[in-house]
Amino acid sequence: MRVPTAIAVTSADLVLPAPDRHTPGAALLHPPEQLDLESALAETGALLERHGHLVALVPPWLPRSTVQRLHTVRAILETDRIALLGIDLPPLGTALLVRQLRQLSVCDFSPGIIASAARLLSHYIYAGALLGSVAKLDRVRVPVGLGAHARSWSPSAQFAVMAHPKPHLAKLSGGGSQGAHGPRGAHGPRGALLPAGPEFATHLTFARGQLTSDWVTAELAPAWQVQGVLENPLPAASPGWWGTPKLVEFAAGIPDLSVLYQLVGSVRREECRWCGLELIGDRCGFCAAPLTAPPPPASSARSRP
């Protein structure tokens, strides 16, 4: 019986509940403060022994020590069967992508396809948050004007923010308690434009921080016409990523395995010119080699007289 490729995370709160009994869980790679190097090598070696290949998401908001540990373990084991994927999504969006990869891991895709599918699927994840302050939001590449910074000091201020796939920020007056109408680009309280939603069927996952509001379920979910809503505990990294603990984070993505399978399976498959694994897109998920060789430097391309 085929053992699925292991999908790994560095924190247990990035593992969302499985949508069905066939979806496996995720492997947990403990950070340096929880596990010494020798134990981490044994832990990862055991995963490779059982699963053959390991795919781990490495978002840029991970602590530097955790990222260094992952690369150290991969280097010491001298293996090309560990994929460390740099995916830039907020914490809850990252958790949603992890669940989609877990769903795909039981399909007949090779490890190379599953690893390179992460970049493809990330484009179909809509990740954002309802925030009580945007004073520290610039760090996540969502433009914040001086007016929004000033309004952040208001005790009742709330902002609808999208970080992915397209940055969006709107001030919601009155706490976001009124209903929204229309499938896409609907208006919330006092005409505040809601973030544009996906044009395909999704489920919405949300997690509450220190902000009391039903805006995500009462307004955003109906406006986006999501097919289901699931509440999950807030990832520990979310307050730091969004710059405030006063938030309700949300992420919408494709829930249906058959749709995910068709999406990934419809992309042309190539063979990595470096490690030989299958891939989709323009870069191998395991060795990071580009599909095509880079052009030679301009200086070497010139012929000598």
> Which residues sit in consecutive blocks of at least 5 with pLDDT less than 50?
146-150, 175-191
Radius of gyration: 21 Å
Query: What percentage of amino acids are in beta strands?
Result: 15-25%
Largest sheet: 6 strands, mixed
Choose one word for the global shape.
Answer: globular
Number of strands: 12
Distance between the termini: 63 Å
Output mean pLDDT: 86
Order of helices and strands: EEHEHEHHEHEEEHEHEHEEH
Percent of residues in helices comes to 25-40%
- Strands of the widest sheet, in order across it, are 7-6-5-10-8-9
Helical segment tally? 9
Structural class by sheet pairing and helices: alpha/beta
Describe this structure in words.
29% of the residues lie in helices and 17% in strands. The chain is of the alpha/beta class and 305 residues long. The longest helix has 15 residues, at 37-51. It has nine helices and twelve strands. The protein has a six-stranded mixed sheet, sandwiched between helices. Helix 1 (37-51) packs across helix 2 and helix 3 packs antiparallel against helix 4 (111-122).
